What we know:
The complex is a heterodimer. Chain A is built from no helices and 13 strands.
Amino acid sequence: DIVMTQSPDFLAVSLGERATINCKSSQSVLYSSNNKNYLAWYQQKPGQPPKLLIYWASTRESGVPDRFSGSGSGTDFTLTISSLQAEDVAVYYCQQYYTTPITFGQGTRLEIK
Amino acid sequence: EVQVVESGGGLVQPGGSLRLSCAASGFIFSTYAMNWVRLAPGKGLEWVSAISGGADRTYYTDSVKGRFTVSRDNSRNTLYLQMNSLRVEDTAIYYCAKDGLGTTTSNWFDPWGQGTLVTVSS
């Protein structure tokens, strides 16, 4: 199984500042035949289901604010929130869909400092 | 609007059974793989199972193999998860999620339902 490890587990950032969450996979999720990274990011607010933010490691889902961006390739990925807003308080998960079983990172809890 | 709505959760004793349903609308159900993902108390997201659009392929995480069965009725736009031999550690919110790409295997998940709570306790 591909193990996804996020860092940090908890992050507190001031309003308007940048938030950076990292995700590392135990093996590459880059598919050589199409040069795509099989990596997605989700946001989950309390009492709500997860919401898709990013897929193919860097493609922003329609309707997601452009302050959210994804980067990285192979085994190392980053979700960046360029200017933290109050509504961004949530738990963030990375997910690999390169192979089954599909696996998620353990989650990063983001709060306001 | 693309939507999935789960039902069927509840309280069950260890060793018991439960069947979850997921009603889909707003998209051509038979052309998308569908998934079950769970969130246990104090834990992170765990993918449980997937089924291809034509129901010819099914996939499970190791901890539920032989106990859970995923199925779908494309004429009713409904996904199911039959859960047998339930254990305390199966306690979780179970989410139904549509595949984001529409192929035979799972990709990203979008959208997710609101979830249905399964509690396994004596």
